């Protein structure tokens, strides 16, 4: 008799706790979102006006620095590849933001000559991933991607947010 009473009591407690959980879940589902608590999508590039965005990557003795601003969807800034025992280059970037992608034209100086090439960066969880892809005509004055859909963002550099004052000194 005691066993039957214990089993029946346990079953009643289990059923009542399940009903409370279901009631709590339905209250959560019916709740309206708090607009103050909604955060921006971390994969969308923020387009706040007159804000400096700075990123960097250091691998061994090689480094990469980027600083840019966005105005009316247009991007302008500076980029530098500082390579150890290889040609380094630095220059200006101009371009556009498209969702989670920063599409820029990089006009840079290296070894006394000026060159231009297209570079895409993908915003992913607060970092910028440099796109690597084939260029249409490697002998052209300006290199553009042959197929933007085929750009690989896992092979390029991973740039993390950095202090803009420090980046500004590196870009000089």
Structure notes:
The chain is built from two helices and nine strands; from the N terminus they run H-E-E-E-E-E-E-E-E-E-H. By secondary structure, it is of the alpha+beta class. An eight-stranded antiparallel barrel has the order 1-2-3-4-5-6-7-9. The radius of gyration is 26 Å and the shape is globular. The termini are far apart. About 13% of the residues have low confidence.
Distance between the termini: 87 Å
Shape: globular
Strand neighbour order, sheet with most strands: 1-2-3-4-5-6-7-9
Sequence stretches where pLDDT stays below 50 over 5 or more residues: 18-39
Range of helix content: 10-25%
- Radius of gyration equals 26 Å
Number of strands: 9
Give a short account of the largest sheet: 8 strands, antiparallel, barrel
The multimeric state of the shown protein is: single chain
Strand composition percent:
35-45%
Average pLDDT confidence is: 80
Secondary structure class reads: alpha+beta
Q: How many helices does DSSP assign?
A: 2
Order of helices and strands: HEEEEEEEEEH
């Amino acid at each position: 008799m005691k066993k039957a009473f214990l089993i029946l009591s346990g079953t009643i407690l289990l059923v009542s706790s399940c009903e409370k959980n279901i009631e709590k879940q339905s209250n959560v589902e019916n709740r309206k979102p708090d607009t103050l608590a909604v955060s921006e999508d971390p994969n969308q590039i923020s387009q706040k006006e007159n804000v400096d965005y700075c990123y960097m990557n250091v691998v061994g003795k090689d480094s990469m620095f980027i600083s840019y601003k966005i105005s009316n969807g247009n991007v302008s800034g500076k980029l530098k590849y500082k390579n150890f025992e290889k040609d380094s280059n630095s220059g200006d970037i101009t371009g556009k933001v498209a969702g989670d992608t920063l599409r820029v034209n990089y006009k840079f100086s290296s070894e006394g000559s000026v060159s231009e090439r297209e570079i895409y960066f993908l915003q992913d969880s607060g970092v910028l991933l440099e796109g690597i892809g084939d260029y249409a005509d490697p002998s052209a004055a300006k290199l553009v991607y042959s197929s933007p859909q085929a750009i690989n963002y896992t092979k390029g550099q991973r740039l993390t947010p950095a202090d803009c004052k420090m980046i500004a000194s590196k870009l000089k």
